[in-house]
Amino acid sequence: MEKLYLEPTPTSPLVILDRESGVFLIQGKSLPEDVKKFYQPIIFWLDSYIKNPNQNTVFEFDFEYFNTDSSKMLLHLMNRLKMLHSQGYDVEIIWRYPQNDAELEEAGEELAEIIKVPFKILAKPEQ
Fold this sequence. Notes:
This protein has 127 residues and is an alpha/beta fold. The protein is 39% helix and 33% strand. The protein has a single domain (4-124), classed as Transcription Regulator spoIIAA (2-Layer Sandwich), CATH 3.30.750.
């Protein structure tokens, strides 16, 4: 399965989805002009991955900021991870947020409540 790698831009996050290395990462800012167009290849990749997944999947979300439209797409992605978990695979979501960003911390808590898979919410140390 081909890895998916998307370079970050000022309005879109870095995306690394690599089944072989076990790296599943979305990192940075997410406020693309066309959210569906940006996230569509990520959703397609995950749909393909779910057909032949690794036994263990640790998916890391590490945002500085994301807008409301992006949050809806994140929920779509996490629902796919939930489906994978319900099929008996080990799935863990790691939610990283800037240490003093209560809004992003709360967003992680809300998503964890909705998704109900193993979910770690971790503050990043100040840089």
